[in-house]
Amino acid sequence: MLGYSDDVESMTFKPDSSQRETELVQAISVATPPGMPAIDGLGRPMLPGYQLLEQLGEGRMSMVWKAQLIGGFRPVAIKVLRHELMDDSAVVRAFMSEGRMLAELEAENGEHPHIVPVLDAGTFGHHLCILMKYMRHGDLNRYLAERYPEGRIDDPLKFLDLAIQVTAGAAYLHDNGIIHRDIKPANVFVDRHGGRAVFRLGDLGM
Questions:
Q1: What's the pLDDT tens digit per position in 32-66?
Q2: By three-state DSSP, how is residue 188 classified?
Q3: Which residues have a catalytic role annotated?
Q4: pLDDT number for residue 6
Q5: At what angle do helices 18-26 and 89-109 cross, to 10 degrees?
Q6: How far is it, in rounded angstroms, from Cα 110 to Cα 2?
Q7: CB–CB of 13/24 below 8 Å?
Q8: What do you get for the CA distance between the two ends of the chain, in Å?
Q9: Exposed, middle or buried, 124 (CB in 10 Å: 0-12/13-18/19+)?
Q10: Of 41, 164, 166, 192, which one is least surrounded by beta carbons within 10 A?
């Protein structure tokens, strides 16, 4: 299971106006089909157009699911704000600001190799969601446990490579007005490119 932080205070960002905050929440709205409940019989969120495949993680304020479009083939990760928190305006602002800021940053500058791509954010049926690339190799905890079961990286060059990649992601966020205050193995995800491990920062706050 992928771990992540859900501390609202672990991410800071440039302040937005109240109008901008409203735009963030209303940026995308996928209509709820008539009669669709918020939660299914197994306690899972009902998201129009998506089939939930597996729960990847959860915290006090949100859950992360592996999902795919009904009839589609490519999985995504969907971070869903807990339904009971939808009336908490501060939580909603922080949650949606994280998703929309990263999605807009990627739309403007392209995908950064050391940030988990955020595809979009908005309202899906009864729920607020952030859609992200599904990181099928898991997080840094899993990577280290599989490759270094003794609990340490013996090769200093591999450790340096890991540190440089994570720092590059954090510096990119900082240069764009976002400070990630919860950098830890559970929030560093592993990708692959040409057989090489690529480390990406994710889960910026909730």
A1: 666 667 878 788 899 999 999 999 988 888 999 99
A2: strand
A3: 182
A4: 46
A5: 80
A6: 25
A7: no
A8: 17
A9: buried
A10: 41
